[in-house]
Specification:
The complex is a heterodimer of chains A (313) and B (235).
Chain A lengths: L4 H31 L7 H19 L7 H23 L12 H27 L14 E5 L7 E5 H23 L1 H11 L1 H6 L4 H23 L10 H15 L4 H21 L5 H15 L13
Antiparallel strand pairs in A: 1-2
Helix pairs in contact in A: 1-5, 1-8, 1-9, 1-10, 2-3, 2-4, 2-8, 2-9, 3-8, 5-6, 6-8, 9-10, 10-11
Chain B lengths: L1 E10 L2 E11 L4 E5 L6 H9 L6 E6 L2 E2 L7 H5 L1 E4 L11 H8 L6 H14 L1 H5 L10 H13 L5 E5 L7 H17 L3 E6 L2 H6 L3 E6 L2 E7 H5 L2 H8 L2
Parallel strand pairs in B: 3-8, 3-9, 6-7, 7-8
Antiparallel strand pairs in B: 1-2, 1-4, 4-5, 9-10
Classes of the chains: A mainly alpha (313), B alpha/beta (235).
Chain lengths: 313, 235
């Protein structure tokens, strides 16, 4: 017997909601990896830090905000992560990027080692500070749902978890703001220019080093915000980033390197595939399904869903 | 306006430029000619700060620009139109021009300049919304020049603007550069392998060979020199 319509719709709605969060995570990595071509192994751990910051500030001084506290906390996590990302780039990452390195391969190798080190430092640092017990954002939203009756009979209904729905809404809003920032503002355009051709951007009078720092900070901030949102339904522990980092890279590549919108849809695709796969294959294989679809899509579209080749042949 | 004084540049022990002295006065078109590998592009990159100068000084309007950070040199009024065009491929023609105007705060002035750019290169107006990476080589060169012009520079530096272009297209590019010089009174420093074209319109020229300036003078002086005639002009 196949899945019922009710089951299908329930899974689809969960897939879309999870997909929005994955989309936001991928948008964050897109700034760092897709656009600036910096390999960042610590991106999952930026998310992890965002989770802890969000829970921490909610518990310590946002109690008076009630149900909206987790969302304000996620924004605060974003701001903190922006500063952290900006500083990390200024002090460490910048030594492995730009015109100092002779080839892209050179810089990728050193970025790999450097950010892997940062990732280990953050994971073990948090293990040292807060221990390994999972920590969740306590909110009544996480335990309540809207029941949407399906009209074809009297008993079937789809449940939409309130926390997941509001998370998804916030993720979409933030993503749209970022698309607009990159597409229409002077700053967004200068970031793209600095990423596409640092040498030419310098001739335009763009402070390329600063542009890279800002992009890295933004990427870290988005990971922080996404972490703050996700912790409403997925508990934090120091190694939680590992559950997400692969999804982020897969989403960015799937969407097409260099495209922020593409990264969002890449993340969405992964959320949908991950959830829908549970309808037909065992739960343990849902991440395998992601990579089967990943490979299939790249076979057909090597530049990703939204990737384009703008160079003349 | 621009004065390069005893400038030397070395890459990892190899001397690329040694003891270069060169001057561009306001309103002049100055050409630097010489064979491949003579250090022409290195000279431009040192002025723009992409390559670090070993010794010597570069003064622009009385200020030692080697002491400023590279991105600030565009704000000071130097537009570098690089070798190989370097347009932003995944940005539209319009966006490329906006990036050219990055150092220019005055929005009205920018609109004026865009009109001038589209008058010089009507094809760019037609292709405004197109990705720069999809343009032909000649169109990309026009865009690179337009982008340089968009910052309302005091000095424009053109590095091999004819490189990789069909002769007819290269002729158009040279005509436009000459037009910028004559009609707009633009001060221009031009590096070019196509020596005859580069010298035709210039006020003064320098001959660069293996990192040294071996000769300088007006067009008449240079073109009457037997060595220059034999080596570069094929006469």
């Amino acid at each position: 017997m196949g899945p019922t319509v009710e089951h299908l719709l329930q899974t689809l709605s969960t897939g879309i909601l999870v997909g929005c969060l994955y989309g936001l995570l991928c948008v964050g990595l897109a700034f760092i990896f897709g656009i600036m071509r910096v390999i960042n192994f610590a991106q999952g751990d930026f998310m992890m830090l965002g989770m802890y910051i969000a829970v921490g500030v909610t518990l310590s001084f946002l109690g008076f905000l009630g149900a909206s506290a987790p969302f304000v906390a996620a924004l605060i996590a974003g701001i903190v992560m922006f500063l952290l990302g900006y500083l990390l780039h200024l002090l460490l990452i910048s030594r492995t990027t730009g015109m100092r390195m002779s080839t892209e391969l050179d810089s990728h190798q050193s970025q790999l080692i450097l950010t892997l080190g940062v990732a280990l430092f953050l994971q073990n640092g948090m293990l040292f500070l807060v221990g390994s017990a999972p920590l969740a954002q306590i909110s009544s939203l996480s335990y309540s749902a809207w029941q949407i009756p399906l009209l074809y009979d009297d008993v079937s209904a789809v449940f939409i978890n309130k926390a997941r729905f509001l998370d998804a809404l916030a993720a979409v809003l933030i993503s749209v703001c970022l698309f607009a920032l990159m597409r229409y503002t002077r700053m967004g355009k200068s970031l793209r220019a600095a990423a596409e051709d640092p040498e030419a951007a310098l001739y335009m009078g763009i402070d390329v080093d600063k542009a890279h720092r800002i992009a890295f900070g933004l990427g870290a901030a988005i990971a922080g915000i996404a972490g703050g949102l996700i912790v409403l339904y997925y508990p934090a522990q120091p190694y939680v980033g590992l559950d997400f980092i692969i999804i982020m890279y897969a989403g960015v590549v799937l969407g097409g390197m260099g495209s922020v919108e593409g990264a969002f849809w890449g993340g969405m695709t992964i959320g949908l595939v991950q959830q829908l796969a549970t309808l037909v294959i065992p739960l343990q294989l849902q991440n395998a399904a992601i990579f089967v679809v990943f490979v299939l899509i790249l076979l057909v579209r090597p530049n990703g869903l939204f990737g384009r080749s703008v160079e003349r042949a | 306006m621009l004065k390069v004084d005893h400038l030397s540049v070395a890459y990892g022990g190899l001397t690329a430029l040694s003891d270069i002295c060169l001057e561009v006065r306001a309103g002049e078109l100055v050409s630097v000619v010489g064979p491949n590998g003579a250090g022409k592009s290195t000279l431009f990159k040192a002025i723009s700060g992409v390559v670090r100068a070993g010794s010597g000084s570069v003064t622009f309007e009385g200020e030692d620009i080697l002491q400023t950070r590279p991105f600030q040199r565009a704000h000071a009024g130097i537009a570098h139109v690089p070798e190989g065009r370097h347009v932003f491929p995944a940005m539209s023609v319009q966006e490329n021009l906006e990036m050219g105007a990055y150092a220019l705060a005055d929005a009205r002035k920018r609109e004026e300049l865009f009109e001038r750019i589209f008058a010089l290169f009507p094809i760019l107006a037609e292709r405004r919304r197109q990705y720069a990476g999809t343009l032909s080589g000649g169109e990309q060169q026009m865009l690179a020049i337009g982008r340089g012009l968009a910052s309302a520079p005091k000095l424009m530096m053109f590095d091999e603007p004819s490189m990789g272009l069909a002769p007819a297209v290269a002729d158009t590019i040279f005509e436009r550069i000459a037009q910028l010089h004559k009609e707009d009174g633009m001060t221009i420093l031009l590096v070019e392998q196509r020596v005859a074209e580069a010298m035709e319109n210039c006020d003064r020229g320098y001959v660069l060979q293996t990192g040294r300036i071996v000769m300088s003078g007006t067009y008449e002086e240079l073109s009457s020199d037997d060595n220059v005639r034999r080596a570069y002009l094929g006469m």
